[in-house]
Structure formats: structure tokens, C-alpha cells
Amino acid sequence: MAEIQPLVAGNWKMNGTQESLGEIRAMCERAARIGARPHLMICPPATLISRVKGLVAASPIQVGAQDCHTAERGAHTGDISAEMLKDAGASAVIVGHSERRGDHGESDALVRAKALAAHRAGLIAIICIGETEGQRRYELTLPVLGRQVRASVPESATAANTIIAYEPVWAIGTGLTPTTDDVAEAHAFIRQTLAEHLGEEAAGGMRILYGGSVKPANAAELMSVANVNGALVGGASLKAEDFFGIVAAYGSA
Ligand code: PEP
């Protein structure tokens, strides 16, 4: 099995206007100085995808989107299709982020349909899963992750078109993180469940990112955990300095 290339992806959420593009320029300068490891991606709001794509054209930074509709086109006011995101310059799209599952009541079935839409458009689907604080308290973390993997990840997913992001909901934006033992247990369980669901080959090469309060100060510890193939970063991806402080966990920033 080939070594898995780690990915550090930044999710800007509903943050960023044209004024923020200076951070993208700064990221391009930093990216030019590092070698091939790890892969880098920024997922700006949809309004900035094409501007960001223009700025990163000569850099290794890839551009992702934060959500997509399941349909290719049609009467869905305010929604954006995966094909439109691809057209704007995205190469990936996050689906099933806990803020979408929570704020918009997105089910596993809808997340699965969105992942299939991403694949249809030729985008990598970054499928987010993770337990809530209450589920963790009742020791339901692994059952919840198992259900989310089986119901949110299409059976046709491959290591090339799909990335899993394990994001404990209670760790997102809170400054709290699980212990490295907990992260190791969750990631090993996710990989095992993927193997049962997709087969050993797809599961063995699939990137499983950790997300939830990753910062420069804790990145090296979290990124060194077995089966952690990079990070999905929220708040700390808004500034080039912080984002590359995390990338430095791979010894190359
Ligand atoms: C996220 O929203 O995907 C995330 C991980 O946020 P933060 O890094 O801010 O916790």
C-alpha cells in the first residue's frame, strides 16, 4: 500500500471577503517555500472560490468548497451544485459538516447524496463525521461513527475521490480536543469500518483527517497519531501564520 499523502485543509466557514485575499497571497508565499508534504487546501466561502483559485494558480494550494446541492441544476434558489463549484475552480467539497448537520438538519442520507453529487462532478468529497458531547458522555462515540460511516459514505467511494474528516462536534471551535488515545481509537475504528463498508483497498488508502480545535500548539501531537492523515482546520485557517503553524507539524513549513 502506497504511503498516504497527508492533507491540511482550511475551512473558512462563513468568513472572508475580498479583504481577506491578502491571507491567501501570504499562504501562497509560505507554500512556495515548503516541499511536497503535506497537500494543502483552503475552502473559502463560495463567493471567493473563483478569486482564490486565481490567486493560488501557481501554488500547490488546492481550493475546496464547503457544501453542495445534490442536483446538477434546477429550481433550488440559493443553492450551488457540485458542477458549479467545479466550474468556479474547486477540486473538493466538504459535505456533512456538523454545522450543516446541526443548523440545516442534514441527515446521513442527504450527506451521502451530496458526496455522490461531488463524485458526479469530479470533485473530492470531504465527508465529515463526529459525535456530539452528549453522545460522547453516554459512550456512544464509536456506534455513532460506525453509523455515520455506513450511512454517509457511498459504497462507490474510493481513496481518490473521498476523504473522511473525523470532527468531534464538542471540539469544534471550543479549544477542547480529545486525548491522543481517543483520537487513535476513533481513527482506527473509522478505518476498520471503512474496510468493512468499502473493502480493504479503498479503506487502506483513504485519508482520515482530524478536525476540532487544531492549532499550531497541538498540531504536531495530533498529526502524529496513527491513522491521522492530516487536519481539517476551522478558526486557525483564517490567518496564514496560524495555518502554516499547523502545517509545520509535518516539519516542512
Ligand atoms: C471545523 O469547523 O471544521 C473545525 C475543525 O473548526 P475549528 O478548527 O475552529 O475547531
Give your account of this protein's structure.
This protein has 253 residues and is of the alpha/beta class. The longest helix has 19 residues. The chain has an eight-stranded parallel β-barrel with strand order 1-2-3-4-5-6-7-8, surrounded by eight helices. It starts with 6 loop residues before the first strand and ends in a 6-residue tail after the last helix. The model has no long low-confidence stretch (mean pLDDT 96). The chain is globular and about 45 Å long. It contains eleven helices and eight strands. Strand 3, helix 3 and strand 4 form a beta-alpha-beta unit. It has one domain: Alpha-Beta Barrel (TIM Barrel). Helix 1 packs parallel to helix 11 and helix 7 packs parallel to helix 8. Phosphoenolpyruvate binds next to strand 8.
Short description:
With 253 residues, the protein is of the alpha/beta class. It has helices spanning 21-33, 49-56, 82-88, 98-103, 108-121, 133-137, 141-152, 180-198, 200-205, 216-223, 240-247; strands at residues 7-11, 39-43, 61-65, 92-95, 124-129, 162-166, 207-211, 230-233.
